[in-house]
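Chain A, query sequence.
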Amino acid sequence: MVRLTAVLYALGLGMTGLAGAAHAETKVPGDPHADDPVGIVADPCPAHPKPDGEAAWKMWNLHMMTRDFGQLCRYAADNRALTGKPVRAVFMGDSITDNWINMDPAMFTGGLVDRGISGQTTAQMLVRFRADVIALKPQVVHIMAMTNDIAGNTGAATMETVLGNIQSMAELANAHGIKVIIASVPPAGVFPWSPATKPVPQIAAINTWLKDYARSRGFTYVDYHAAMAQADGAMKPGLSTDGVHPTKEGYAIMAPLARQAIDKALIEAK
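Chain A, predicted structure.
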């Protein structure tokens, strides 16, 4: 201990420096929930009212990024309610998955569970993958992501990093005996919330990689892009509300493809 203390003082840290680092935490000025619990606690998910108005929404987003990056609190109660119940498939994804249950509630019956969160990137999904997928002990996981990585929702990342996040989720599932479905990135010609982004070539490159990766690992690949894209890579007219998020008609194309993929994954598992 004496030797360690001497080294710390030599580095200019000392015990005061250690205490300061140990008690450091990220707070956003003006955060109305700055007094929420931090650290390792029994209940990290206090209830907050839904944000009302653009300013409140922006503050909520900042709070989420600094206090619940993976948004583990979003489905915590729903996950507890599923304890001991059979789960056939979990759909892990972003807003395209998040909106699916609203547009087509009948899809998520018979053991199919929606665990999409609007705006999320693959880094955030990986953070919550254990709680929202593995802990539910599904037979299959359907992973559809990358739209928000291309848009840069949580900052810049290399292609290797975001594809690595997909690999990590798939490998975690596989290690737990969960069959893996890798979904293509759906088509999009432009992102309304990130208009400077040119997504078409990156979506094409990612989908080629996803298809090859799924084949190399014996996972099931489901190609929504081919079923919904027009020649220029954008979504076909009538299948989306904004060029990205499917309408009921869009989900009507996706649903049978998803069910076929689930059936295929389970048949091949036998």
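Residues 98 and 116 are 4 Å apart (CA to CA). The chain is about 45% helix and 10% strand.
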